[in-house]
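Question (not urgent): is this output format expected?
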Amino acid sequence: MHTQTIYELSQEAERLLMLSLEHLRQLQKLPMTSLDDVALKQGEHSSQVVQPLHFSARGMDVQQATLNNELRKITRLEMVLAIVGTMKAGKSTTINAIVGTEVLPNRNRPMTALPTLIRHTPGQKEPVLHFSHVAPIDALMKVLQQRVRECDRQRLTQTLEIDKDMNVLLQHIENGVAFERYYLGAQPIFHCLKSLNDLVRLSKALDVDFPFAAYAAIEHIPVIEVEFVHLAGQASYPGQLTLLDTPGPNEAGQPHLQKMLNEQLARASAVLAVMDYTQLKSISDEEVRQAIMAVGKSVPLYALVNKFDQKDRNSDDEEQVRALISGTLMQGGIAPERIYPVSSMWGYLANRARHELTTRGRLPDHQVQRWVQDFAEAALGRRWRTTDLDDTEHIRHAADLLWEDSLFEQPIQKVIHAAYANASLYALRSASHKLLNYAQSAHEYLEFRAHGLTVAYEKLRLNITHIEDDMQQLEVSQGRVSDEVSHEVELALDAAAVYLNEQQTEILCGINTFFVKENVLMMSQHGLGAGVSSAEMAGEMLVLHDEGQAKIVLDKMRSSCEVVLLAAQESISRDLALRFEQLESTLSRALNDAMRPIEQRVKEELNHAGFRARIRFPAFHAAMFNFNTRQLFNEAIEQDIPAENAPSTGGVVRDTFSRWLNQPNWGWNDYVETKTRYLIDMGALHKNLVHYVTQFCQQIRKALAAQVDISVTAGMATFFADFSLCLTQLQASLRESLTLRQQNESAVNALNEQLQHRITTAAWLYEDSRLLRDDINTLFATEHT
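Got this back:
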């Protein structure tokens, strides 16, 4: 490790960050009103979350916070790895698996009310939480104390799920018990974080604003310090590794968390997305993908595809999952080799068990610590016994196998160990990218404003009028394109419905052949030998004289039907995936064709006036289309299973097929009457099968229609909001120039001199930042060769 070089680069990064902050303070002194006015007006008329314009007063505050955050990280050479994922993806379990012990509560509900830092601290065996910036929470508790006394408790119970922990929180609020600034141990930390989450829910129910803004700065959020088990005993490196647990977008019904998530990701050194293998194309996972893709190439991206232990023999394997996420879902925004299918739960349980065996020589009492029961079931099977836990060597071996099966070793080595060893370089690279982004955007903004001082007053007014016309045209085009898109979607769904009808017919035709009298009798005799008595058909009843023969006939029938069903399932998967990839391309082309003339006209008009217009044309992503037909297959089936008919522990395909018929295990006794003969009701069997095939295809059609409607609506709203924001920013900058042109000549000249000086400073800030980035990249390449 090049310690001296890293020190020198960190000194240079610190110098440039401080100069950039000073440059930003000088920009804040320049006159600006219309930028904020336009941003606010746009927010009033839009349901979308309006991001602050880059150099409005709010936008500058965001940039200042970003630069200050990088300065804080550089002084400690801290690499912040942000962990992001939806509630059900297993984000907390993944963090626990990385750390090696339970530092975050693992519950099937949103638990991340505030972002939380988890810092690797060598020697800190027991996790400790520091909550130094607790004053805003104390103030909130006092407000809630009065509200709780005044509220109708029965009505509050109807609005809010009040469990044991919520009752304790309510008692603390009534008695004036404040949050502590220090919590030692997993259980106290769990109660603190859960209480914070309950506080968010309670505040919402009582219509009190939770002080999220007070925790926008990363230094104000709670910090857990603990030694990561996987890094214990590792060599010492310059720099520090810290995980950032982020709230999921719209978690717990709190839409503003999306803004908090975006801000936290933008300030991270790298991002690790936790995706749910069973919900890869769901809307919730799409929100996470959009958030991390918005960060751009300045932050390295990694992904863990959790719950891979739920893969069956018909599911996508590791390579297929990597290809799907990298190429389709992330649109090439993440390399396949940075995607790791894992089971976070298995990884957490295995690693915690191994850690307990190493430090204490045995596992804790399973009746006291429930995770031990989860471990035993995962590692030893459902039939484990308490005495099995006493054989430490056997348990250690089972834990090692479970760890191996979790596939967690690879991301630990390639992401966590690498991040720890190169924390200082990640911190430096993050700072260099933020510096470059600031310098480039500041230079563009200042040049645009400086040129506005030289353009004639009437010309500026004309440009503003033209953009206003273009924005009106955008609204007209949006309506027209919406109609076109709706037409394309309708055509696609109609074609899919026709295709599914054809598939249904083919499935039923294929199955019907097995129930033809001649084929049933042939199947009853084939391969059974001469010693077996003959079978006959009495109406729809197959009459047999041997119990074993009856079982064999049903098993053959099941196997034959499975071949047809599995072939149809594969065909449906491939065809629908292709159809809706084509639909997404069609919709993207329709949007681009409609907006391109406006984009080109704006650029041409501004170029004639000498402005260099930078319009970033947004992309339309409908990647949330959920066409995982295997999943739809199972969901359609599960809806019709009575509780008393839950599937048994047979093979996956057999269980799935059995559920089609609402007959667990395809039980031969359900169709066979035991007398002197054995009767199989082939008519009832056939009727059940036809009913469930028909129902399955209906469920597919309904799911497709609902998913496409949600996906296209969300995708189009994002597209037009992004494009409208581009035009709004240009219009706002032109209005700034128009306002300045109305001042007297000496004021204009003075402002122009200031702008030129700031432009020069921004230019050399950019150049020095570029050189810093190049030096850091060279050092990165040296460390990885």
